[in-house]
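FORM 7B: Structural annotation worksheet

SECTION A. Query
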Amino acid sequence: MSTLDELLQQQEILQQEIDAARKLEKRSKIKELRASLEKYALTAEDVFPQLKPKTPVKPPLPPKYRDPNSVKTWSGAGRAPWWMKGRNYDDFLIEPSSESQSSEDHNHS
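SECTION B. Predicted structure
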């Protein structure tokens, strides 16, 4: 009968052989899959539909308010930041740049 040390050594050798065989087969399967994907013009969404976002991701809103004492801004969506609590929101409005204001004026003519 084998000793525990001998069995553990055999297990380690077998695990190394399993890992090497898995690596070789994985390369082969990846190559086959890529060929099939190309042949049938499949995309990742075709193969893995659960990865496709259910709703489009909205881009972040531009800042509407700025803390005059720091670089912190707030878009006006969600809960108001601590630096605006109990104050008039109009005092924190970010002035539109003259460039964007003039382009709006041209659009309304």
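SECTION C. Observations
Residues 98-109 have pLDDT under 50 and may be disordered. Residues 4-39 form the longest helix (36 residues).

SECTION D. Sign-off
Analyst initials: ____
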